[in-house]
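Let's practice the habit of predicting before peeking. Look at the sequence and jot down your guess about where helices and strands might fall. Then scroll down.
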Amino acid sequence: MARDMTTGREGKHILAFALPIMGGLVLQQLYNTVDSVVVGQKLGDIALGAVGTCSALTMFAVSFAVGLTNGSSVIFAQLFGAKQLDKLRRNLSTAFCLLAALGLAISILGFCFARPLLKALAAPDAILDMASGYFRIYCLGLVFQFVYNVAAGALRSVGDSKATLYFLCISSVVNIVLDLVFVIVFHWGVEGTAIATVIAQGVSAVVSLVYMHRKYEFFRFAKGEFAFDPSCCGQILKLGVPTMVQMCIVSGGNVLIQRVVNDLGTVALAANTAAARIENYMFIPVQSMNNGLATFTGQNVGAGKYDRVLGGRRQARYIIVPTALLISLILWVFAKPLIGLFGVTGESLTLGIQHLRFIAPFFVIFALYMSTAGVLTGSGDVLAAACVTLSVLGVRVAATYIFNYGFHLGFPSLYYANPIGWAFGFIVVWLRFRTGIWKTKAVVKRGKPA
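Done guessing? Here is the structure:
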């Protein structure tokens, strides 16, 4: 159900909103994790590397959807907070049209140019055919991801984060079952895991649309209401393009880092794939609180309640920091069995363990960084948030290349750069927050900043 966050206890609202998102992100990560576990255990390290080397490209494609959806979600949240539901529907229909068209275009481009893109990443010849087959099929499901992201963003903007958890639970079960059937029973190899993912993404998109229509009257379109509005599109692009560009450049930076991984060989590729999958789970609690804080901020900025935004940020940090410390301890203690889940052995296993244990103590820095970034995003100060993220990426990519090609550190170059980027991001985003400029960035002008 919808959650009005403009009244009541700040921390309770943010946590109650973030927990279902957390569960949803866990389930979303299961797509990639199950693919990797099934591939690593049943098809070996080479096949695991083939799936892993596609990760940077898949994230680059999805960045378009997530970036524009984040921009539209800021508008949705502020309009909901201001109780301007007609404008909310108009922006929603425009977002659906825009994202569906973009998703279809990227699906076609990715399918046609999969092999050249992977060759540009210096994908080893031993995995190029498998990786190309996997990525082509994966691209067919991108249009479903784009549509789902709009629906999920709209539901989260009105405080309904539980719904996305239910959708992802259904699609994850579909994905897991089909992974096992297509790989173990039908022997379709890595292509089978891609087909399972595409079907699961289609299921989540359909279920989310049906739920929105049946559950919320203010999301139902009267005859002639579902249309593309150029003025709404301009506003969505104004807020969404900076975030989209930010995420695409971040994904592009990950592509550059993936090239370093590929240069290090198949042993490093398998180790990095396994460690990256575990890292993605590590980020989930902090990212969930960040999303919760962004939605909380959006609703309260729309209602003109800036004092609640400050209280919400403070309460969010009381939750995020202890959680980050607990995750760090778990990573350090259980690094070996976690990496071992993916079927890697020998030197790949050793490198993966080293990766996790090095970054574990620094994770609290990332938590502090994200606990403030959510305020900037939710307030509409998306350009500043994008610039901070791009700066963090630049520091991380530069450090990776310097460590690897300048100091010839090899595999450790991939994780030495992370805490450097996180520390830089925390300093910059904290300075931006302290200026108070974010209080002037509201899309819905209602109330005065305190």
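How did you do? The CA atoms of residues 11 and 318 lie 9 Å apart.
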